[in-house]
Amino acid sequence: MSDNQTTAYRVLARKYRPDSFETLIGQDALVRTLSNALELGRLAHAFVLTGVRGIGKTSTARILARGLNCEGADGTGGPTLNPCGVCQHCRDIADSRHIDVLEMDAASNTGVDDVREIIDGANYRPVSARFKIYIIDEVHMLSRNAFNALLKTLEEPPDNVKFIFATTEIRKVPVTILSRCQRFDLRRVPNELMTTHLARIAKAEGISAEDGALIQISRASEGSVRDALSLLDQAAAMGADKIDEASIITMLGQAETSQVIAILEACFAGQTAEAVNLFLSADAGGAEAETMLADMLDLLHQASLIAAGASPGDLPEDQLSQLRAIADMGIAKLGRAWQMMLHGHRELKDAPSPKAAAQMVLIRLAHLAPMPTPADIIKTLQEDKAPASPAVPETSSPAPSSPAPSSPAPSSPVPSSPESSSSEVPPAPPPETALQTTNNEQAVTAAPPAPSADMPAKSDAPSFASLRDIADYFDAQNEKILNARIKRHLRVVSFGQHKLEVVVVGDNAEDLPQQLAKSLSTATGAPWLVSVCETGGGKTLAEEDLEIQNKEKSAAADLPLVASVLEAFEGAEITAIKQNDDEDDAPQASENIELAREISN
Length: 601
Ligand SMILES: [Zn+2]
Hints:
Layout: H1 3-8, H2 11-15, H3 28-39, E1 46-50, H4 57-69, H5 88-94, E2 101-105, H6 112-122, E3 132-137, H7 144-155, E4 161-167, H8 175-178, E5 182-185, H9 191-204, E6 208-209, H10 211-221, H11 225-238, E7 242-243, H12 245-252, H13 257-268, H14 272-284, H15 289-307, H16 317-327, H17 331-350, H18 354-368, H19 374-385, H20 431-446, H21 467-476, H22 480-489, E8 490-496, E9 499-504, H23 512-524, E10 529-533, H24 541-555, H25 561-568, H26 591-600
Parallel strand pairs: 1-4, 1-5, 2-3, 3-4, 6-7, 9-10
Antiparallel strand pairs: 8-9
Bound molecules: zinc ion.
Zinc ion binds next to helix 5.
């Protein structure tokens, strides 16, 4: 949304700006913490509010200032979470004209002098209110000297002075400052809550709006109440107080993030036509080809962060769940896609038609993305050569369908056709057989609960020697999500008999240990204990994969196996795998050579 629009349509956003914690939606955690602090009389001297733009930081700061200084309708109240709104302090703060509440925008006053003024003022008692309150917006913009000056006051703050800082970029605020503040993270308002909020306001304003339209607005606002209300305003003005879904979609116009994600998803699923069509419809909506590719790169980056177990930052919930699905492709594929996109993004500049060039990139990506990675193939080939998993000596395994240990079996790793589904199914021998061989070996030690002789089904429970085994097992059981979460979120501290100690990393994984214990117990028929440690542990499997992938990339040229890898791709030539530095060599532009080059990446 352009600034133009925000200023032209901000009536509702101003009218419904929250003036109490009750009207501040979607920030329950913040309100709870504050109310505890108030009840215990343990108010910090400084607060820092952080969150994306439009999320309500300034409104929250003002509500907090009112709560701190409110005296109640009868003039006898103390600090409260429910400022009365009628006392002099409440009213003056709401109008931004309270003599003891000073608002400053660090974005325009970054000098040390401005801060010095504040600090000097802090030494005087408040004129009329309980506290002298300094609200500093975009505090990360202060200069280093300004921070140093501020720090002195924060180290020994006068009793009746409070600081409320707001920032969109908490990482740019020095730790020395943060450590002296009580921090509150303002969350994006969840879509459902936002839609309800919009419906309430639409009703109060006499605007008739379709549910679907409000849902679209909620999504587009990406958790910002201010943006949502501006859009509602704009839509109401456009439709003369009648809002339908179709016109909202038209109004929102250009490529939304979700659209770009959909293009990526189609590419990864090998659905070339779908990807191109999505691109064309975004293009028809006015989206720039170059911007779309840049957005795709950005999303790949974030998906890779998720896949590696790192936090992708504060994203709207919709996008986060879509990105998680993409992250499940695995780091290797994401990395390959990233390189292709980066390459294509560069090509775009030289192309006579950026639109055509962008489509070519998508077609290439959709063609390549679903194929197994070199690491997959190498793994498969190695498994074919040495079918036994490390622990199992090849003795009297009666396993009927154990994979033939002889040939590199060029049949198995043939890449699926671009139209086939995307999931990273190992083209290997059916995982069950591999598992069974291990079972026969380890059943001796594992001692399942019911030690009946050679019972089929239940008693031949899988046994595991590592977290990798466990992840592979659930992968083979088609529990792709559990597999991906295990890889992303767990660092192993110790691994024992039906016992696992882990450190949980990344977001939204608190339930994972419990889920894993349950799934393992079900799978093995014996109780598993998964305990959580605070520190320690090695890399996550995802991180290991990334490392292996990187090593393989550099060592690829030396591996004799690479030859077999290339065989798996029809017509690919080994000459092209040698070096990747010289892209200008321009071999005869055969797609296979291109393919081989991408693989060597
Ligand atoms: Zn009041």
